[in-house]
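Long-time lurker. I teach an intro course on protein structure, and each term I like to show students one example going from raw sequence to a predicted 3D structure in token notation. This year I'd like something fresh instead of my usual example. Would anyone be willing to generate the tokens for the chain below so I can use it in lecture? Attribution to the forum is fine with me.
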Amino acid sequence: MSGAVHLLAPDEAAALRRRLDQAGFAFRRVPHAAFSARGEDVVVTYYPKRRKLLVQGRGADAFAARFLGGRTAAPPPAAADRGPAAAVALPALGSDEAGKGDTFGPLVVCAAAVDEAIAAELAEAGVVDSKRLADRRVHQLAAWFGPKVPHEVRLLDPTEYAARRAAAGGNVNHLLCELHAEVLRALHRRTGHVRAVVDRFASGSPVSRALRGDGLEVTEVPRAEAHPAVAAASVLARARFLDALERLSEEAAVELPKGSGAPTRRALRELLSLHGRDGLGRFAKTHFTNVRRALDEHGS
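-- Reply from a regular --
Happy to contribute to a lecture. Here you go:
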């Protein structure tokens, strides 16, 4: 559903709300919004933090003429000011991964489909690169927008990750390219969106090459999370990674830390003590240097 954004001061929004109530609009709760109301062929939502009224639906023009004095929508921020990723027009697909640098847990790749309307809601809610968000906030956001944002996920637990990596010639970037192409291709077929944005993880635009002939226009750039579709994919992928890591910790009876820093040494020792060398691959990415070191120290 397409949408237009109008800038309204708080007193204007309050007056509009009263008029909508009198006109018989049906009100509903929307996160971060002062109000959201549905009328004939239109849904309007006011976000007080940014003083933005989002008007969605076929009746958007008629609504503006009746309730907003025919005012025109606010222009979007200049794409050049937000980087090359943000310059990709909506609707679009975006993909990102989680778990690539984590010793424990899966590799997760997600693609999300975002249009103008949902992009405004994601921005208001603070959906950004998941690395900038606390884990609790990642879970909250994913639970909120996940059901209404079309997305595709590929989650490789450590055992499957090892098999897929070996099949990709032991090259993690080749595996990532395969997974990004899989989720973007599947979501393109579901939604029909033809533009896609991917955070560049290798030179030579490998995802673009992998999707050549699939009808997708792929943009691979650094800091692609500036695009709302990639930011959404980042949050959804991270949420799935965190959930899987928690489940693996319960299965292992060992608290498995995120990342690959100093805390992983203790966890690796505990895993080797409880599950042995053969069991380590259920929980850890065994090609990581710290894992190989722990195996050498453990001995036979």
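Some talking points for your students: The chain has a mean pLDDT of 90. The radius of gyration is 23 Å.
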